[in-house]
Design a protein that fits this description.
Length: 144
């Protein structure tokens, strides 16, 4: 896989949707907020394998992440957030994620005080299998 660009360039093109694809959400963009470069690369590679045509964007700063997310198509993005306490309580981030109808995978222990009711929690340290499971839940949509 080409390394994900900080400016969110497309790594490959999406194949056309087949019949019956409406049962799952079409995720065309993956936005990653991760402070550790090695972990971010691993997440990006796994996301690329799971969603080979998706645009992958890796950010290490919350402001950069918010700027990239503003360009997400409605309902077609998954945001994987290294959710420290600041990110979990950031009302502006929660509002932006909701506005873009992005599915959220929060790398954190599940917390009742988290801003997003439909967030998928991925407790660290996590395995590739756990990340793939979270991506499947994100693709399947809320309530899965």
């Amino acid at each position: 896989m080409p390394s994900p660009d900080r400016d969110c360039t497309v790594t490959t093109t999406l194949p056309p949707q087949g019949v019956g694809a409406a049962a799952t959400q079409v995720l065309t963009h993956v936005f990653i907020l991760e402070h550790d470069v090695i972990v971010a690369q691993d997440i990006a590679e796994t996301a690329h394998e799971f969603l080979p045509g998706a645009r992958i964007c890796v950010s290490s700063a919350l402001d950069q992440f918010r700027d990239a997310l503003r360009e997400a198509p409605l309902g077609q993005a998954v945001a994987i957030v290294d959710a420290g306490s600041a990110e979990l309580r950031d009302a502006a981030l929660a509002e932006l994620l909701g506005t873009r109808r992005a599915r959220v995978i929060a790398i954190a222990e599940p917390q009742a005080s988290a801003t997003g009711a439909d967030w998928i929690f991925l407790p660290p340290p996590f395995s590739t299998t756990a990340l793939l499971s979270a991506l499947r839940k994100a693709q399947d949509g809320p309530g899965t």
